[in-house]
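WARN no homologs supplied; continuing
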Amino acid sequence: MPRAPRIHIEEGLYLITTRGDHGGKLFKDDADRYQYLDLLAKYREQYRFKAFSYVLMPAFVHLLIELAGHTTISEIMHVIDSTYTKYFNGRYERHGHLFQERFRAVVVEKEPHLAELTRYIHLVPVKAGPVDRPEDYEWTSCRYYLEKAGKDPLEVSDAAKEVLKRFSSDPDEQVKLYREFLGSLGDDKFKLLGRKLQRTSVFGSKAFVEEVKKEAAEEALKEKEEEDKAWVASRAHKVFILAGGLAVIILSIAAIYAYRKNLGLENLLQKKEAEFGEKLSVEQTKLRRDLEEKYKADMVSYKAAVKRLEIEKKRAENR
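OK structure emitted
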C-alpha cells in the first residue's frame, strides 16, 4: 500500500517525531546530543524555521517547529537525519539506517494549540521517568521558558516569548503561569493527547482539519498533474530517442547494404576484367600464331619468286 504524501503547509506549525530504527538508541552520550543540537542550530539558520520546543530522549526526538517561506518539512528533516546518521555511523564504526525510515509529522493549528504542545513536549521526560520536574531534564527546551538560560543556538528564547505572552504581559508572571500550566496536565490527559497525536496527521479544529486536507488534496492534484506532464515530456523524449535510434539502425543497414552491393559490383568487375584478360591473352596468342604462319608462307612465296626471277634472267642471257 503506497504511503500517504506529506502534507505541506507553507509557514505551517509541525510536531515532528523521529525514532531510532527498530527502537534503537539515537544518543549514547552527551557528545551525541550536543552534536544533534548543533545540527538543529545549523539548519535552523539555513532554513530559517522557528524552534518552539524540543526534547531529546534516548530513542526518539520531538520537535515543534514553524516553517519559513517555501521550505518543506521533508527537506529539513532529511538533511538533519542524514547528516546526523553520517556522524553517528562514523563515530561508532557502524553502517546502515539509524532513524526509522519515515518520521511522523503532524500539522498543528497554531491557535489554540501552540502552548499545549510545548507543554506536551516539555513533560515527556517527567512522564517517561528520568526526572520529576521538566526543567531538571537537560536535553529539552523547557529551561528557556522558565529561566534566563545561557547559550541558546536554536534561539528558543525568542520563540518562547510568543508562547509566554499568551499568559501575561508581565515577564515574571509569564514564567509563574507557564510553570502552573505545566503542572496542570495529569497523566491520563497526557496519554490521551499522545494517542490523538499518534492517530492523526492534522491536529486542530474541525474547520482547520478540513481546510488542511483540502489544501493537501489540491497540492497532491497539482503534483500529479506536474508528474503527468513530466511523464508525457519524458515519454516524448523517449520516443524521440527511440526514433533517432531506429533511424540510425536503418541508415546503418542501408550503408551496409550499399557497401555490400558496391562490394559485389566491384567483385563482378574484377571477375569480368579477369575473364576479358584471359580472352585477350588467348586472342593475342592465336593472332601471333596466325601471323607467324602467314609470315612463313609469305617467305616461301618470296623465295620461290626470287628463284623464278633468277631462272628467267639466265634464260635471257643465253639467248
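The beta strands are 13-19, 50-56, 60-66, 104-108, 202-203.
OK
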